[in-house]
Amino acid sequence: MPTTKEAIERFKWLENQHVAVAIWREDDVLELAMEEGIRCSRKRAREIIDEIDHKQDAMMSISWGTIRVYLKEYGWGGQEIRTMKSIITQIKVSTNCVNFTHC
Fold it and tell me: What is the number of domains present in the chain?
């Protein structure tokens, strides 16, 4: 996941075009971890953001549900992500999504 400075540099070529961008930060992971009662270090939050960025599904996007699933699977203790299929299933369940195209 790029830093804010790196992301701005990447978008310079767009100049004055309108874009839709969702920004998720390590602080979002840490805040949700605190709300959920999950111990999470800043280093682990960065790893989660990097993992989400690397494995995101454009059809599903990134949501609080996505972060919640990664926190529970990849939170304190170093458990690795099982599979994308299990993550997607958990996201669908946690967001009451039954149809991929309407999540």
Answer: 1
Max CA distance (Å), the chain: 44
The domain of 71 spans 25-102
Rounded-to-integer distance, Cα 10 and Cα 75, Å = 30
Q: Is 42 within a domain?
A: yes
Q: Is a pLDDT exceeding 70 seen at residue 61?
A: yes
Could you please report the per-residue DSSP string of 38-81? ----HHHHHHHHHHHHHH--TTT---HHHHHHHHHHHSTTTPPP
pTM of the model as a whole: 0.64
Q: Which amino acid is at 99?
A: N
Neighbours of 12 (CB within 10 A): 7
DSSP 99: S
pLDDT in tens, 21-58: 788 999 999 999 999 888 899 999 999 998 888 887 77
Q: Within a domain: residue 6?
A: no
